[in-house]
Amino acid sequence: MKISDILIMGLKSLSRRKARTILTVLGVVIGSLSIIIMRSIGYGMENNFETQVMQQGGLTTITVSTYGDIYDDDGNWVDSKQQKLDNKLVEQIKQIEHVRAVSPVIQMDAMLMSGRYQGWVYITAMDMDSFDDFEFPGLIMGEYPTPQDSSTIIFGFNTPYDFWDTASRGRGRNTKEIDLQKDKLTLKFQGYPTNDKKKEFSLPLKNIAKMEQTNGEFDYNTYMDMEYFKKIYLKYCNTLSLENRKKAIKVLDQYQQIKLNVDNIDNVVGVQDEIKA
Fold this sequence. Notes:
By secondary structure, the chain is an alpha+beta fold. The chain folds into two domains: 3-55; 61-276, no CATH class. The chain has helices at residues 3-16, 18-55, 87-94, 226-237, 242-249, 268-276; strands at 61-65, 67-71, 77-82, 99-114, 117-126, 139-141, 153-155, 163-165, 175-176, 186-188, 203-204, 208-211, 222-225, 257-262.
């Protein structure tokens, strides 16, 4: 029997059973599409998970906070304990095996002025030597601080924003979008009133950088090198009364967080256990 005869016979058979043929073809098509869709969803969920993890600093980043949770042997939450985060603890963490980078973190609100327009930023001060280890994003403007010049202030993609006219009143306050390349900016700290005998602390921002968009926490923070932050914050403290100066300087004695980066994901749990111990 020729191949053509086999094809003709098959077509005749299919024509006699059209309904069954159509259902069979539909079943194959639907089954194939289902497999493709499920795999696409799986890839999408995996990529979304990876993106979320990277936004939080990656799978090898550990953040030690002031308050630590206490769990019982069954894993149930029991209580929280406040712990002191200071330079002594930073040095202890640096000695832990598999810890690649460590940086203390100080976080503080600060006011920005541009003429009569005012805005706020949330400053995160970290050791500039650790920026690469914590995978800070690329910059669309300016440069990261260096040992030669650590005075750079680094704005996240969505900062600064919501500058309003201090001369306007009520709900209809005039707002302004700041152009970092054209508008002059001045930074101020507002935790305590200035001593009447001193001039108010005010820092003109000359070295400005801006991060690429990450769709994560970098976009909404403003970063500084830790040592430079301490330097300008002490200048601010020196404009306060003696009593308020003592209170303000305490901010530098303890950190809000300590961030560390582990050399391999397989070593993260071990490092966490050693920190808890």
